[in-house]
Design goal:
Shape of chain B: extended
Helix content of chain A: over 70%
Number of strands of chain B: 0
Oligomer: heterodimer
Number of helices of chain A: 13
Structural class of chain B: mainly alpha
Number of helices of chain B: 5
Strand content of chain A: under 5%
Order of helices and strands of chain A: HHHHHHHHHHHHH
Radius of gyration of chain B: 19 Å
Radius of gyration of chain A: 19 Å
Largest sheet of chain B: none
């Protein structure tokens, strides 16, 4: 490792620490969802270590709880994590063309909302070592937090579990509400999504579908209509 | 038939990995298809919103506590409080309200 790379790596580690701490708390509530799906602590640990996605993992855990078909699991992962496709595409523009494929693959393993955020915020080209540093200090918080959520979810009083189970939804709100404030179309889209999601959970025929299936159908439907009615202009940053 | 948790995890990890790695390794130019770009832009907001509501009021022992966490979470997120503070405050709201409800 060159001196410059080591400096970048350490800086990434430093920036990854608050992210890892936040992950720990949220992953704990994800672990409770994993426990509800019948996963063991090791399975929860493995799921978070290998996937690194809050919404995607949560959606799949609800599918596991319902013993859904494998294909539904694959489609749900694709839908819930579709945003990473865009983020990775954006991040590819931050990498020097000479960055080899192996280094790109390692970055791709952990493109999350938060690491994407700090990676894209770097001035000039993104040094892969900076990203690896942030991965080093944030991945353990995510995986261990999930594992402890599975273990401790059993021991904690129902009131505490009830409180922790909203952490994930709080994090989702923190991701979707600020852009909804900045962009009126996103704001309306979020409100419409809330409304339709609620309607689908109470309407007789539709509520019989699994919540995972309803999420897939609503996401594709709402996003398609929004993209047709309000296509994004090229100069708009995403 | 009960499905194998390890196969679920393998599918989830593989799909997530491919979603992230393919653009980084294959796409060297920006996406230009306007519909696809717009669709992908809207997807996260729609999917996260659908997953949050009404699930948040069903996750808590008292639906009222979940509803309060939703409202306060939205207000804090609106003020750009950040991931961690919003998540922790939502938990605290439920914890405190459920002492009384």
């Amino acid at each position: 490792m060159k001196t410059e790379d080591r400096k970048e790596y350490l800086e990434g580690m430093k920036d990854g620490i608050p992210i890892g701490t936040g992950y720990f708390a949220v992953a704990f509530s994800l672990g409770i969802a994993a426990r509800n799906a019948g996963l063991t602590p090791f399975q929860g640990f493995l799921a978070s270590l290998s996937t690194n996605a809050s919404a995607g993992e949560y959606a799949v855990f609800t599918l596991i709880a319902q013993n859904a078909p494998y294909i539904e699991c694959a489609v749900m992962t694709l839908i819930a994590n579709a945003r990473y496709l865009l983020m990775s595409a954006a991040l590819s523009q931050k990498l020097h063309p000479d960055v080899p494929v192996a280094k790109r693959i390692l970055i791709g393993f952990d493109v999350t909302d938060e690491l994407f955020g700090i990676g894209i915020a770097r001035k000039g080209w993104l040094d892969p070592w900076y990203f690896y540093g942030a991965m080093t200090s944030s991945i353990p918080g995510w995986a261990i937090g999930t594992m402890l959520g599975v273990i401790m979810g059993n021991l904690l009083p129902a009131r505490i579990v009830s409180a922790l189970s909203v952490a994930l939804y709080g994090m989702f709100l923190a991701i979707i509400i600020p852009p909804a404030r900045e962009n009126r179309i996103v704001g309306v889209l979020v409100a419409v999504s809330f409304l339709l999601s609620w309607l689908c959970s109470v309407l007789p025929a539709v509520s019989a579908l699994s919540s995972g299936t309803r999420t897939i159908i609503l996401t594709i439907g709402i996003s398609t209509i929004a993209a047709l009615l309000f296509p994004r202009k090229d100069e708009e940053a995403s | 038939m009960k499905h194998d948790p390890y196969i679920y995890i393998l599918i989830m990890a593989s799909v997530s990995f491919l979603i992230r790695v393919l653009p980084l390794t294959l796409i060297r130019k920006p996406i230009t298809n306007r519909f696809l770009k717009s669709f992908l832009y809207y997807v996260p907001y729609a999917t996260l919103a659908v997953m949050t509501f009404p699930a948040i009021i069903q996750a808590t022992q008292s639906p009222l506590a979940g509803a309060a966490a939703l409202v306060i979470g939205i207000i804090l997120a609106w003020m750009n409080a950040g991931l961690f503070p919003v998540a922790v405050t939502c938990c605290m709201v439920v914890l405190i309200l459920e002492l009384f409800l």
